[in-house]
Amino acid sequence: LSHNDEDTFKILIATDIHLGYLEKDAIRGNDSYNTLDEILKCAKTNQVDFILLGGDLFHDNKPSRRCLHNCITMLRRYCMGDTPIHFNILSDQNVNFNTTEFPWVNYQDENLNISIPAFSIHGNHDDPTGAEGLCALDLLSASGLVNHFGHSHSVEKIEISPILMQKGKTKLALFGLGSIPDERLYRMFVNNQVTMLRPKEDQDEWFNLFTIHQNRSKHGPTNYIPEQFLDDFIDLVVWGHEHECLIAPTRNEQQLFYVTQPGSSVATSLSPGEATKKHIGLLRVKGRKMNLEKIPLKTVRQFFIQDVVLADYQDQFTPDTPQVTKKVEDLCYAKVTEMLEEAERERLGCLLTPEKPLIRLRVDYSGGFEAFNTSRFSQKFVERVANPKDIIHFLRRREQKEDIKGQTEAKYTAHSVEGLRVEDLVKQYFEATEQTVQLSLLTEKGMGKAIQEFVDKDEKDAIEELITYQLEKTQRHLQARGVTTEQDIDAEVRAAACMGNRAEEVNVAINRAKALRLERGDEPVDADLSRELALDSDEDSVPFPPPARGRGRGGRGRGGRGRGRGELSYYLSQIKAH
Amino acid sequence: LSHNDEDTFKILIATDIHLGYLEKDAIRGNDSYNTLDEILKCAKTNQVDFILLGGDLFHDNKPSRRCLHNCITMLRRYCMGDTPIHFNILSDQNVNFNTTEFPWVNYQDENLNISIPAFSIHGNHDDPTGAEGLCALDLLSASGLVNHFGHSHSVEKIEISPILMQKGKTKLALFGLGSIPDERLYRMFVNNQVTMLRPKEDQDEWFNLFTIHQNRSKHGPTNYIPEQFLDDFIDLVVWGHEHECLIAPTRNEQQLFYVTQPGSSVATSLSPGEATKKHIGLLRVKGRKMNLEKIPLKTVRQFFIQDVVLADYQDQFTPDTPQVTKKVEDLCYAKVTEMLEEAERERLGCLLTPEKPLIRLRVDYSGGFEAFNTSRFSQKFVERVANPKDIIHFLRRREQKEDIKGQTEAKYTAHSVEGLRVEDLVKQYFEATEQTVQLSLLTEKGMGKAIQEFVDKDEKDAIEELITYQLEKTQRHLQARGVTTEQDIDAEVRAAACMGNRAEEVNVAINRAKALRLERGDEPVDADLSRELALDSDEDSVPFPPPARGRGRGGRGRGGRGRGRGELSYYLSQIKAH
């Protein structure tokens, strides 16, 4: 794709900027602000057509005054100015931008001189609250600094209307869905309550870009959104919420779309995912072709994480070695120093990178070792590390696992034996309800009807809340056990899921969703084997082809989605010429 | 003054809008929003040159998201647009607008299309906080919707640089001082640490407008700002903070300036001051002439307050009358009904006025009467009154007063007798310190030096805080006694003040301030008897003359302010031609 082509959309892609994260920390307080500045400057330097944010621009639902002030100031500094905008919006903007009194894109406002429009969905950190359903983004939206889109006001049914954009000959349909509790959205997908509207005209000409902010990795049986749930007419999904930078698009072979996961631009935890080198993306779209250039962020604080299993150092010490704890501490000191040296080498010449890196050493001291005094250890690195107080994380993996299993089983037994209090009865009721709901997936009436029955009892909110509460509690329960690696969580979740046969139910749900898609007239995904690929290469970028459409799938061919949904599946607004 | 004159500034004046006040109240929740809408609409209808706000635009230091969203939305709706602006700013805007990265007036920003610039100082409700010293207004400032001015960043010394404006031949110097704790500002005035800078050139041609947000009525010996403290070159003071609408300018015969007190636009208490009919002002300034038109606010909820002294109804009942409490309740019922009928008559045809008025009946039941059950009483008016729960306010004035005096004396005695705890010793120390500081006013070294001595001990903040704490505590103490009328508070304050001879000290302070003004070369205020008055009349408006300057007081005549302050007294920035 040639640069600055009049038919090429240039889009800066970023998610999870978490503005305001640790803003009171003396060392790290400005990290999130510095990186937003870098991101916006990058957008300006690259003369992008627009910025696309995948949620969690703010770390806090109610950002501090300083945080809002910084954000407003930076947006005004970088996104306002005389640079002309080269694309038009063809869709009904009253539908696209439904959160303010000014339901039109900011750059078309006669009173604002916007040089780079920013489009953002909300994340789970900056989600809408209160009777008005406003989120922090809406303050930026009301001032005309950001275009907040993808906010569904219904909790039962979602229709996603794309922002239809045209630049030269390229047609881009931008779909967005702001963060929704995963379980709820999961259920809505399963119950066929999520509809993506598409333009009727020239259906094959649109590049379909979808931005979502949900769990992508499986945090629980229904506590994530399987990629398979998403409509397969999508070309590229920009997946927010997941903090690991996996920005190079991966192809979903079943759905035939690509997924890019830009990851956070500031580490909000000291987990391995945050240690991956952080990037933002420069997406180019021309016709149906696309290309994503990875842009490394220079202001991001370095983060090094390493695991040490003490039992692996039998040649040096065992729990019985004299002064073993001192030896362990020395080993850790050496490891941390090593990481610091690596950080320093890497940082050479990078003037924008903060001097003190984040360091995490996870020490598995299973097998009878003792933890040493971490406060004394921290003291040694206070001048060199950004997080001196929590460098060392001791964990005892194997023993703990057994403990958890024991406890879990004990808990499950207790429930049917002990004398129950009222709240226990309520819990039991909902556990039973949940089972019914889940099991009903296997029956003809489906989950939708099962829930509807409860909803009809006029206790919609209460039930919804309690179910969500129960599901979340179970998950917190598992996470609270100090189980830190992803494998562990997965194992635990699987174990828990097996008790209610949930793992299978999830598969059933996925298959059901697929079946529904087939029912409404879509072709089976595997049948689409012929692809016309458009390859494009670029140094330090990830070339990849867009998933082309199979024969006979375009236009009218996808018309009859059948069974009362057909009409809704199409975007009915008139396409306006500008 | 002819309307729409090319030399006439038209300024909409309002203060204490208290946006967000009681926003969660089912009945009154939208009152503050409706009135801001009315005010902004009025500014637009009258095609004013600018809006001047005297502080407390927001009721809460941290306004809710809804509140900020509403405010941003209304400002964008009414203050942006194509109407051209007809005045220029001649002063150094970097000095005038020092709270954002965009230190220039919003209407000169190339990226914003402002039709009505709004200028605001901050009040005590929306004052700057945190390490950055930002207030809610600064969010509006950063987004370019309001011009926040009058924010002094020093707590020791204040220099007020005016925004110098010119429209046609009229020159307007707009001075502003955002809210500062009264005691602190009082002390700064006394210590000669408040300087108002004036343009060197054409000093006599400027109309000097000063906006302040402080106690105007005496809430304590040093807990207000005497008008005499303000420089007498000022022509008009717009006084915020005081909620009673006394918008018709009153002339200060000593200082020879006028003071307009627009008052709040929403009642935030059920006190008599809030019951005065609420107005905003349309100020016209042409050359040195001015005229203030009162504009009644239509969206303000009616508020009626009435006092009943039960002892005055001896012909109807006494405490010994059978079923006297029932008779009292009937009397109150009749009074409230009467007020409601009056409210209804007044409201006839006023479609914008909310239906349910605020009603307060203060019942003095001194002399052995008993209070009746107000919750049952409230129930009767729940459909007709906006504040059914607190219509009746029982008070027993006379007995209470005696109680207070007894208690106060007891308290003062106890201090020197009882065994003291550490905190009591600290209190005693500061009480003594305060006396010293106050008394030192009478000595040559002056209050400034006395304070300086404490400051030099490196305990500046601690001492400042403790003194403020002590003063505020004393005042709260007095207010907490259920003493509600202003006269009562005044009496109490005077009584308390007498104990430390404070009343006299205040007079001393005022005289000292005057003396200082004389020292630095100003002519004594009473000497200025010759006035050239410019009268102007208008229906429903308050015509009044601007205080003209006496001979020999202009230009060079006021040059030598003497004693090391001379140079600072002049506004040194170059006057730029636009």
Look at the structure and give the CATH class of the largest domain in chain A. Answer: Alpha Beta
Class computed from helices, strands and strand pairing of chain A: alpha/beta
Strand order, main sheet of chain A: write it out.
5-4-2-1-15-16-20
Determine the most extensive contact between two protein chains: A-B, 34 and 34 residues
Largest sheet of chain A: 7 strands, mixed
Strand content of chain A: 15-25%
CATH structural fold name of the largest domain in chain A: Purple Acid Phosphatase, chain A, domain 2
The CATH homologous superfamily of the largest domain in chain A is termed: Metallo-dependent phosphatases
Gross morphology of chain A is: elongated
Please report the total strand number of chain A as a whole number.
Answer: 21
Write down the domain tally of chain A.
Answer: 3
**Rg of chain A, nearest Å:** 26 Å
Mean pLDDT of chain A: 78
**Number of helices in the DSSP assignment of chain A:** 13
End-to-end separation of chain A in angstroms reads 26 Å
Oligomer: homodimer
Give an account of the 3D structure.
The structure is a homodimer of 578-residue chains. Chain A has 578 residues and is α/β, with parallel strands linked by helices. The first copy, chain A, folds into three domains: 315 residues, Metallo-dependent phosphatases (Purple Acid Phosphatase, chain A, domain 2), CATH 3.60.21.10; 91 residues, 2-Layer Sandwich (Translation Initiation Factor IF3), CATH 3.30.110; 94 residues, no CATH class. Chain A is 33% helix and 18% strand. Chain A is built from 13 helices and 21 strands. In chain A, strands 5-4-2-1-15-16-20 form a seven-stranded mixed sheet, covered by helices on one side. Chain A has a seven-stranded mixed sheet with strand order 3-7-8-11-12-14-13, with no helix packed on it. In chain A, strands 17-18-19 form a three-stranded parallel sheet. In chain A, helix 1 links the parallel strand 1 and strand 2. In chain A, helix 1 packs parallel to helix 2, helix 5 runs antiparallel to helix 11 and helix 10 packs across helix 11. Chains A and B meet through helix 2 and helix 4 of A and helix 2 and helix 4 of B. Chains A, B: It is found in: Chromosome; Nucleus. Chains A, B: Belongs to the MRE11/RAD32 family. Chains A, B: InterPro entries: Calcineurin-like_PHP, Metallo-depent_PP-like, Mre11, Mre11_capping_dom, Mre11_DNA-bd, Mre11_N. Chains A, B: This is Double-strand break repair protein.
